[in-house]
Amino acid sequence: MSLSDCPKCWDTPCTCGYQYWFMTLDRLEQVAKTARKALADRRGGRRPPADVREELERQKANAEAAKRMTSEDWHRTIEIPAAQLMTAIEEDARMRAPVSHALLDAYATRERKGG
Ligand SMILES: [Zn+2]
């Protein structure tokens, strides 16, 4: 089981602890070590690497563009019903997840249903 899309909390990576029960102790220690290092880097004010800075800029630009889109824009963009998209976006807002997550989930649901 990966660290994405926890079926209990839907957080990425899991923040409720459910997914960690499926890891070996070695893997869990590796994940904890990586998280502790990331936390120390962030708290220490370490500047993100170039590729991370580029991705942060890209995500910021996408988020700004997404704010200007209407539900009909979204509908035209990924061709799923606007009402379904709005439900997903509202759910993401409730869970404080990025809107892109809602779009991907909505798109995946559409694909599974063969729509
Ligand atoms: Zn979880």
Could you give the topology of this structure?
Elements: H1 25-43, H2 50-67, H3 71-78, H4 82-95, H5 99-112
Helix pairs in contact: 3-4, 4-5
This protein binds zinc ion.
Residues 6, 8-9, 11, 14-16, 18-19 line the site of zinc ion.
Provide a quick synopsis of the model.
By secondary structure, this protein is mainly alpha-helical.
Number of domains: 2
Query: How many helix segments?
Result: 5
How helix-rich are the residues, as a percent range?
55-70%
Shape descriptor = flat
Low-confidence sequence ranges: none
SS class? mainly alpha
Largest sheet at a glance?
Answer: none
Mean pLDDT: 79
| Distance separating the two termini | 27 Å
Bound chemical compounds: zinc ion
Taking all Cα atoms into account, the compactness measure Rg is 17 Å
Order of helices and strands: HHHHH
Estimated share of beta-strand residues: under 5%
Number of strands: 0
Kindly list the characteristics that best describe this protein:
mainly alpha; 2 domains; 5 helices; binds zinc ion
Textual characterization of the structure:
The protein has 2 domains: 1-46, no CATH class; 50-115, no CATH class. 63% of the residues lie in helices and 0% in strands. The protein has 5 helices and no strands. It starts with 24 loop residues before the first helix and ends with a helix. With 115 residues, it is mainly alpha-helical. Helix 4 (82-95) packs across helix 5 (99-112). The mean pLDDT is 79. The longest helix is centred in the N-terminal third of the chain and has 19 residues, at 25-43. Bound molecules: zinc ion (ZN).
